[in-house]
Amino acid sequence: MEPLRDADLASAFDHASRTYDVMTSASPGYGAHLRRSARRLGLPDGGAGLSLLDLGCGTGTSTAALLATAPLATVTGVDASAGMLARARRKSWPDRVRFVQAPVEHLGTIEADGPYDAVFAAYLLRNVADPDAVLRTVHRLLQPGGRVSIHEYTLSGRPENRLLWAAVMNGLVRPWARLNRDAALYRHLYRSVLDFDTADVFAARLRRAGFTRVRCLPQPGWQTGITHTFVAARP
Ligand SMILES: C[S@@+](CC[C@H](N)C(=O)[O-])C[C@H]1O[C@@H](n2cnc3c(N)ncnc32)[C@H](O)[C@@H]1O
User: Which of 171, 172, 200, 208 has its CA 20 to 30 A from that of 140?
Assistant: First the structure.
């Protein structure tokens, strides 16, 4: 089965948006892990005067993580799914936060065109058809010296991490998703993680896109060896 992409993926997220926050709040450490990845941007002065981009912001959990580390920043959240963004917009945000509906592939031609001091992308890159092209665009949208934090399921390459991923997905997540008629999206989640870059391959991808000071940092708990934060800079 082909991975879900573009309009099909946006439509699957539209449907799943109804239960997305319930699902993620039941996932141990979901918010804390995002906040750790946002903190790893090392933004100074509470983000005062900085302009930040949250790519694939979904229902805004990653946007909230950015604001937790940079409460004074201006933040633009971009997502292709109208349903996910509707949930995000319903939450309470400072005036300096705005949401734009667009595929990240259209960055460079939409109103969210920066330049930005930092970009955060959580659980996005694995979903796009051409991650290299998206990374090159992110690089272009950053100020020189600007930073990126990419929070992504990227397996370590060790068999025990693949096995744990399969056990969590097949034992817990996919049965629950079937009850909510989101089976296709969560099958996509399961397969896309197994098929996507391992952590070292993704770090190399960032270097190829022109990023420097690339670091791959682990997440704690059951996600060790399954989810990483990649921090890097535009020279
Ligand atoms: C797994 S959710 C993560 C949401 C949020 N970042 C979080 O951490 O909770 C992935 C989000 O990426 C969005 N997305 C996937 N592919 C996209 C694309 N090509 N352009 C824009 N958004 C995309 C989906 O609509 C979805 O809201």
Answer: 200
